[in-house]
Design a protein that fits this description.
Organism: Psychrobacillus glaciei
CATH architecture of the largest domain: 3-Layer(aba) Sandwich
GO molecular function, one term: glycosyltransferase activity
CATH superfamily of the largest domain: Glycogen Phosphorylase B
CATH topology of the largest domain: Rossmann fold
GO biological process, one term: lipopolysaccharide biosynthetic process
Radius of gyration: 22 Å
Order of helices and strands: EHEEHEEHEHEEEHEEHEHEHEHEH
Distance between the termini: 7 Å
Number of helices: 10
Pfam families: Glycos_transf_1
Oligomer: single chain
Number of domains: 2
CATH class of the largest domain: Alpha Beta
Strand order of the largest sheet: 3-2-1-4-5-6-7
Shape: elongated
Structural class: alpha/beta
Strand content: 15-25%
InterPro entries: Glyco_trans_1 (IPR001296)
Helix content: 25-40%
């Protein structure tokens, strides 16, 4: 049995993380019955006894090259490999192949209805391309795939609503997580806030800046917000600490409140991680945050574009009107799920 994994465009960020995570699970779930061929753009993974790689370096150089591969070049290459199944980790299918394809969808921009991005605004142009151009290519791929895998129920519903695809074709597998959980009441500081996110418009850092100014206008100055970006802004209540290793992010969760104003996410991993650690979370009131934080007593929500609501919640944390709810579990443990393992089983069964 031969399965081709299409990750030819993965070169950074979440796409590369997904590739490496899936590859790791393939290695852990070794089977002599399956030969895996990964299409990658660089030497991101190592070949193993049952894992081969085809490095296609030109694909990551431009979107034009990516489209040429999806529509023209890819079909010849893949058809010559004669796979039993193709698993795409990059939201789109390869056109013109004879084999059934399963698509792992992790691009939410075309399926959210909170924000319409504009081609005429420089800072939104690339997001508008994802929403209105690439989104149509993703739509076409999903409509012509065997199955679609998403990370959340909200994405399942959004794809179904937009494309009218049979809901049974859209499967939900939350991403694998390995979280160090512990009771944090002894370390928690009510005047420290933390937001781990990259500098993208929909991550919505601006609302934090506005909320800080509102708190200052009310006379609050003894608090600090830590942001994992670089910025020339200088403010006594904001620290720009740059990118952090994952272990350090988890450490911040153990003694500070997570602010999460992002309004577009497939899953929103920091929400899950902070929930597992047990800290207070101030999150945008969105479909993904409500789903991930359902039933969590330390979660509080604000309108993603309402700085006053966020400032009011931050104020309540500072004055201890919002208190950390204690966990009964005081031991440290590793928690993990096995969604990749379940997906691998699905791929095996489909390829047979």
């Amino acid at each position: 049995m031969r399965i081709v994994v299409n990750a030819a465009a993965a070169s950074s960020g979440g796409a590369l993380t997904i590739l490496k995570s899936f590859y790791g699970s393939v290695i852990q779930n070794y089977s002599k019955e399956v030969e895996w061929i990964f299409l990658v753009s660089d030497n991101y993974i190592e070949e193993q006894e049952n894992v081969k790689t085809l490095v296609l370096k030109d694909i990551k150089k431009s979107w034009l090259n990516r489209l040429k591969f999806d529509f023209i070049v890819g079909k010849k290459l893949v058809n010559e490999l004669r796979p039993d199944l193709i698993f795409s980790l990059q939201n789109t299918k390869i056109y013109g192949v004879k084999t059934e394809q399963i698509i792992y969808l992790h691009q939410p921009i075309p399926y959210q209805n909170i924000k319409k991005f504009s081609f005429f605004k420089k800072e939104e142009r690339i997001l508008a391309i994802y929403q209105k151009v690439i989104g149509k290519l993703i739509d076409s791929s999903l409509l012509n795939s065997k199955l679609i895998i998403v990370q959340t129920q909200w994405m399942r519903n959004a794809v179904n609503e937009k494309l009218k695809i049979n809901i049974d074709k859209i499967l939900v597998y939350p991403p694998d997580t390995t979280i160090l959980t512990k009771k944090i009441s002894g370390n928690f500081q009510n005047n420290l806030f933390f937001y781990p996110a990259s500098k993208i418009i929909y991550k919505n850092h601006q609302i934090i800046y506005k909320a800080v100014e509102i708190l200052n206008s009310k006379g609050y100055s003894d608090f600090k917000v830590f942001l994992t970006i670089e910025d020339n802004l200088r403010h006594p209540n904001i620290s720009f600490i740059g990118n952090l290793k994952h272990e350090k992010v988890i450490d911040y969760f153990t003694y500070s409140t997570l602010i999460f104003p992002s309004y577009i996410e497939t899953f929103g991993l920091p929400l899950k991680e902070a929930k597992d650690v047990g800290t207070i979370i101030l999150a945008s009131d969105t479909s993904f945050s409500q789903e991930i934080l359902e039933g969590y007593e330390n979660a509080h929500f604000f309108g993603f574009n309402n700085a006053n609501e966020l400032a009011n919640l931050m104020e309540k944390v500072i004055i201890k009107e919002i208190n950390l709810q204690e966990f009964t579990n005081v031991t440290e443990k590793k928690e993990s799920n096995n969604s990749w393992q379940e997906i691998i089983k699905l791929l095996h069964n489909t390829a047979k």
